[in-house]
Amino acid sequence: MRRLALVLSLGLSMAGGAPALAAPTVDDAPAVAETPIVIGRSYALPSTILGQTREINVWLPPGYAESGQTYPVLYVLDGGQDQDFHHISGIAQLGTIVGTTRDVIVVGVASVDRRNELALPTDDAELIARYPTQGHSERFRRFIGEEVQPFIEGRLRTSGETALMGESLAGLFVVETFLKEPQMFDAYVAVSPSLWWDGGKLARQSGAHLRDHSNASRTLMLMLGDEGEMMQAPMDVLTANLRDHALPGVKWDFTPRPAESHATIYHGAALDAFRRLYAVPAAPGT
Predict the structure, then answer these.
(1) Which residues form the signal peptide (predicted)?
(2) Three-state SS for 111?
(3) With contact defined as beta carbons under 8 Å apart, do 176 and 202 qualify?
(4) Whole-number Å distance between alpha carbons of 13 and 33
(5) What is the DSSP letter of 194?
(6) Whole-angstrom distance, CA of residue 166 vs CA of residue 172
């Protein structure tokens, strides 16, 4: 007890009798301003075609409000806030900031049931059993063409230049739209399209669809990683048909990306597509 008293006495002497400073509390901390980060707007668009309300997300270029200009529009499939909208709109923002690409409006069209909305119908009993709601891509295409595009064009200053981008099953939808409704968009970007669906039937039928195409100007970009024979074989069929049914107005290319897998290809492929689709025109005399 005497040792404890001595320690306490020394402690008080060293403090010089001055009152101890209280530790700062949360209430004493300086106020920190907090504001939400807003990168765009999300719309709940009622759809008569789908019979439900659907999420449409929009990113506008900086300066849109003051510019008075019109802008091209990129429609991104799987474009929900928890899907691909943020990273694709980020590519658009980066191009604007550093001046490497033209300003573009990015419209994300969210998906809910991807095989229902993005896959064409199949007769494959195994696929039907596994995905009983599959096969309504035509209805989803009507939703985009008859409801989403008019909504965007009626609300925003668009230039009339449009593109459609998607990866995997969304890439399959892009290719199907290019083959069956080529007039819907000026440019199509299909990254790792799931052409294996329904035994590769869409790729095999692509020649017949291309024979029905007009010579209207449009662009198709195809990209595929190192993804195995199931993905590569139907891509080879599609590109062979594109070569055999060449139309002067149709500009297409296939870019293998062997260093990428199905899981890693999208962001870099999308950046490449932006740089080609929305390249800044060279200054006169350069």
Answers:
(1) 1-22
(2) coil
(3) yes
(4) 43
(5) -
(6) 8
